[in-house]
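Researcher: Structure for this, please.
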Amino acid sequence: MHRAVVAGALFLLAACDQLSGGNGTQRSATAEPFPRADRPVAPIVSTRWSNEEARDRVNEAEDIMDRAGIRPGMTVADIGAGEGYYTVRLARKVGPGGRVLAEDILPEVIEALSRRITREKWDNVSVRLGDPADPKLPENSFDRIFMVHMYHEIAEPYAFLWHLSPALRKDGELILVDADRPTDQHGTPPRLLTCEMAAMGFRLEQLVPRPGAGGYLARFRRIVSRPDPASIIPCELHG
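Model: Predicted structure, token format:
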């Protein structure tokens, strides 16, 4: 459903991998060492969560960026960037001394976003193609990593978060926006999100309703090193 709903935002294993609610038999070599998530996976159905004009009318991006503590000079990753709603607004916020990496897993989306970045002359933005189970981000590089309306599309959250974790700087934060509804209805219940994050060493710092952003904002910090993949116990959807 979202911009990142293309993505992610990131991270579906591909339409063919979403059989049985995301619990199909095909898995990538990257995901194999990790447990499957005990939940369905929402399909990517659009490259946008809502149109940009409507989102700006409710001050969505400014509100989320302010609550995330985005400041000039920061380095930010926009995972599941889609058409670039947050990408360009983050680029403006961090300014010429900051950097934004926009990533998605659909080649056609990346191509379109690259054209937009070139056309609008966002010189502090880089665009790259991601992988459904591994964003392949450089280590110790980001003050904030944004995942907006795309977490419910990640078919392999434990693999994905495990590989994402080293990319955050010491005081970095993972910023998520999603709807409070089941994952197969294009949302993530906060209790499930918090459980999956905790399994990967992230602590919830703040959870606030943000109706203007279509759900809630969650801020996470990494407090312990990432676990051995074999030791991860998947969260139970109804547990």
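Researcher: Any notable elements?
Model: The domain at 4-231 is CATH 3.40.50.150 (Rossmann fold). Residues 1-23 have pLDDT under 50 and may be disordered.
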